[in-house]
């Protein structure tokens, strides 16, 4: 089972107003990675991932809090593996920059795979928006 989430990516030159704003807006609640990665000299790739689940937050707030902790734990772990630097982390939203498009794509693919294998709260798996779908084929 997997919660639906949206990822957006852009590339922006370091030192541009957009990258300066992103780096300055790092959430104070974001936990630093254990080994900081130096950004590349000219380009970086930004990925923004959001769990889209407003109705689940209303119906299952405790289970959604647990699910978001699982989501963020995986985002942080994989960002470190794929040369990512966390820019912000706010509940069900995670934003990171990556050294290269390849690192960003590998992170995006690996996060999808890892989330498929997580143990999600059962109350969420019984909701229409997030139930398991089994394909036979």
Your description of this structure?
This protein is an alpha+beta fold. Helix content is 40%, strand content 23%. It has five helices and four strands. It has helices at 17-24, 54-59, 61-81, 101-116, 122-125; strands at residues 5-13, 43-51, 84-90, 93-98. Strands 1-2-4-3 form a four-stranded antiparallel sheet, sandwiched between helices. Strand 3 and strand 4 form a beta hairpin.
Query: Total number of helical segments?
Result: 5
Question: What is the tally of beta strands?
Answer: 4
Low-confidence stretches: 1-31
- Quick one: biggest sheet? 4 strands, antiparallel
Helix and strand string, N-terminal first? EHEHHEEHH
Estimated structural class = alpha+beta
Mean pLDDT: 76
SSE diagram, text form:
Elements lengths: L4 E9 L3 H8 L18 E9 L2 H6 L1 H21 L2 E7 L2 E6 L2 H16 L5 H4 L12
Antiparallel strand pairs: 1-2, 2-4, 3-4
Compact description:
The chain has about 140 residues and is of the alpha+beta class.
Please supply descriptive tags for the structure shown above.
single chain; 137 residues; alpha+beta; 5 helices; 4 strands; 40% helix; disordered N terminus
């Amino acid at each position: 089972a997997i919660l639906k989430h949206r990822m957006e990516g852009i590339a922006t030159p370091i030192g541009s107003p957009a990258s300066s704003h992103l780096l300055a807006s790092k959430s104070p609640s974001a936990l630093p990675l254990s080994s900081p990665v130096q950004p590349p000299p000219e380009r970086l790739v930004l990925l923004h991932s959001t769990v889209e689940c407003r109705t689940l937050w209303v119906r299952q707030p405790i289970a959604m809090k647990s699910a978001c902790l699982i989501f963020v734990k995986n985002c942080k772990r994989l960002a470190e593996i794929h040369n990512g630097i966390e820019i912000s982390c706010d509940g069900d939203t995670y934003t990171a920059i990556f050294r290269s498009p390849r690192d960003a794509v590998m992170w995006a693919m690996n996060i999808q795979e890892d989330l498929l294998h997580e143990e999600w709260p059962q109350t969420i798996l019984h909701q229409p928006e997030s139930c398991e779908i089994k394909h036979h084929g």
